[in-house]
Amino acid sequence: MTFKRIVLSLLTVVAILFAGASLWESWQQPQIQSRLELYQANLLLHAQEWQPQNDKDASLRNARSALLGERPLNSAFEQYQEARISAQINLDKANNQLKQLQSEPVTTPATPRPQSEIAPITDTSRLRQQQQIQRSRAQLQLLIAELDLRLGLLQVQQGQTDAAIQTWTKFQQQVNNQQQAVLADTAAVLIGLWSEPPRIFPDAEQLIQNNLDGWFRYRALSRLYQLQQRQDALRQLQATEQQTAQQALIKLAFIGSLPAFGGIVGVGLLLILGAQRLLKGKEALLARNEDARWSTPWTGETVWQVFILGFFLMGQIVVPLGLTLLQIRPPAGAGVRVQAFYILTTYLTVAVGGLAVLYFSIKPFFPLPKDWFRFNLQGNWFLWGLGGYCAALPLVVIVSLINQQIWQGQGGSNPLLSLALQAQDQVALAIFFFTAAIAAPIFEELLFRGFLLPSLTRYMSVWSAIVLSSLLFAVAHLSVAEILPLTVLGIVLGVVYTRSRNLLAPMLLHSLWNSGTLLSLFILGSGSV
After folding, report:
1. For residue 123, what are the contacts with CB-CB under 8 A and spacing of at least 6?
2. Most buried among 226, 289, 359, 510, by the most CB within 10 A?
């Protein structure tokens, strides 16, 4: 074995251990999908408060009925109740894991050793796991507290005032930390507002403003102003809520109609292409280039080198270590713009480093065969990319629903999605958009579809290469909950590329997918205002 292969083998072991640790850590984190459902429920609650003022609002009135359904309040309550149950299950799991770690015997050396050798790896690992679980517990406890406040308000609106007071009282009895204590004060305010007779705390309005948002804040403030007989403040609040409700209705229509339309088109495309494949066989559009492998001038060692050095070493060691040594980190409490710019800079650095490794790895084989890394503005690449996007929608949605049942709201998500969900800043959104919809499609499609997939066809069939490259593409995102959906998306990207033989097609599909996701997150995030 050559020195190069020994180094690659060692780095591969490190990469596998790192990926395994990252996937395990992601399993402890909640999926963003669970939060998306709550954000959509918030929009639903806002929209159901809208009252048309005249006949000109007839179109919106019809849209309201179609979008909200018959019992929007009950639907929102069920979403929050499911989120509460899921959070409690995950909290119980975290508590059990922590007890198990604390009950395990501590590994100590049999004989005295120098101080530098006394900390066994097992103890360090255990401490790290305990810290991780404790952070997860704190987040879950805070989430449960926030959900209890909102569930009580939903119960009040359903006429279940006694149940709401019981929900808030039970929460007050389970306070464990300072953050929960602040929310417990808010619960006391809400109990006072809906008690008989009502009690109004001096700091009631401030606590409501600070600890409730969106529809829930409107309901609590409306009750407070009614009890205080502040008619001007109540009228202004109601006028503001009507504006917010109308905007929420439009947002619901947008985020619901476009994906639904694309999904319907996608189902139609899948049925047509599937039927054509059955009827025409090898002459079908879906069978184009199905068995046409690339002429690959390099061996698997080059592929191995590109992904270990270019993807893992650059992305997980060189760039992070370089940023640490240069002390380039967002300051504590940095705004979302600073965080967005840091993410973009880091990603571009990793991408440039990875593509440089790719270039120098395959440079000895120049000139490459003509079907490698094809970018052709002519032809039907746009239709392939757009059609692939529509076809991916129903497939990924179905797999995501199954995935939710498997992981029960856990499994982690891309941290960029959480930032985009919470960032109501147009400059930050523009930076996120450039990162996710331009930089990521170019880098990832060049690496996974442009290089990996064709290289694998030297050793396996085109379909096998599509599936394996898609699985590696999904695992590379280091999130357990995203493996299945991203594998399906990767398969569609692979099919689009192998059939079109033009990298512009999967890049367009990838860009449309990320753009749609970011736009939906931004709209959903604006619902809790």
Report:
1. 106, 107
2. 510
DSSP state of 201: -
The two tokens of residue 124 are 């360090």
Full-model pTM: 0.78
Q: Output the CA torsion 309→314→318→321 (10° steps).
A: -140
For residue range 6-45, list pLDDT tens digits in order.
Answer: 888 888 888 888 888 877 777 766 665 566 777 778 888 8
Say if residue 423's pLDDT is above 70: no
The rounded radius of gyration (Å) of the Cα atoms in the chain is 27
Please state whether the peptide bond connecting residue 369 to the residue before it is cis, i.e. omega within 30 degrees of 0. no
Q: Among 167, 153, 165, 161, which Cα is nearest to 218's?
A: 153
Q: What torsion, rounded to 10 degrees, do the Cα atoms 490, 492, 498, 501 define?
A: -100
Cβ neighbours of 286 (radius 10 Å): 14
pLDDT score for 111: 47
Distant-in-sequence, close-in-space partners of 21: CB < 8 Å, separation ≥ 6 = none
Residue listed under structure tokens 């395959």: 362
| Residue 81 identity | Q
Residue 277 clears pLDDT 50, i.e. is over it: yes
